[in-house]
Amino acid sequence: MSDAQPITGLRPGQVPKHVFVCGDPGRLERISKGWEDCREICAVREYRVLAGRAGGLPVAAASTGIGAPSTAILLEELVKVGADTFLRIGNSGGLAPDLALGDLVVTTGAVRDDGTSRSYVGPEYPAVADHALVGALLAAARQRGVRVRAGITWSLDAFYVRNAVLNPDGSLGSMSAARSWGPRHAERIEEMRRANVLNCEMEAGTLLTLASLFGVRAGCICVVSDRTPWPGPAELDLDRNMDAAIAVAHDAFLALG
User: Fold this and answer.
1) Alpha-carbon distance 21 to 27, whole Å?
2) CB 151 within 8 A of CB 195
3) pTM higher than 0.90 for the full model?
4) Tens digit of pLDDT per residue, the chain (257 long)?
């Protein structure tokens, strides 16, 4: 019987224990820049995996694509072939009013507003980051002098229908082509703000929940690349401080060893 995973084709022994995770396959070159013995070991659909050594530490970088379902598939297969420590490096929308574009957010826990993690365990089960990873990320960011906050992340599905645009009159409007967006959507955004939730994205809730269920470690560091609600295209910057987030994540892995 083949020991290859059904989606990625990965096998035990191919993937180092420490894995950087991101959504965009195109970001893997930035994450792996400067690695020794860097090689591609998977390129299937949205899933691409590179392996090498960073500062002497065997590491991998893997892309999940967008959202919780594809994240769960990749995490399942990476854990089954031996990986046990995961750091997500991503983009996010800023909810807290004092967050600026380019600020970094280290997730301590996530609001599980997705369907995938609930397929595994009830909503009462918490999505929490590994405390050692959180501490290492914060220490590394402060050592580098990067603006960073730690707190709760809102992890959601349905990118367009759950996000909002800021209308000229200050009201919130739909980003969806169907315009299927009602008062409850706006109330939910305000609810998250009142609860001191810092940022929103689409993968952390599932990553952290499944890591706890699987008995492995996971953390998440995201750049604030836009504001929620969205003021417009001029306020979107996916690259601002991404290299800093990548550097901080590397420092954290090296510190933990």
Assistant:
1) 10
2) no
3) yes
4) 479 999 999 999 999 999 999 999 999 999 999 999 999 999 999 999 999 999 999 999 999 999 999 999 999 999 999 999 999 999 999 999 999 999 999 999 999 999 999 999 999 999 999 999 999 999 999 999 999 999 999 999 988 877 777 778 877 777 778 766 666 778 888 899 999 999 999 999 999 999 999 999 999 999 999 887 777 655 677 788 999 999 999 999 999 98
How far apart CA 255 and CA 257 sit, in angstroms, is 6
φ, ψ of residue 218 to 5 degrees: the values are -150, 150
Structure-token pair, residue 158 = 């349905």
User: Is the bond leading into 229 cis (omega within 30 degrees of zero)?
Assistant: yes
Question: How many CB atoms within 10 Å of residue 8?
Answer: 25
Query: Where does residue 158 fall: left (phi above 0), alpha (psi -120 to 50 degrees), or beta otherwise?
Result: left
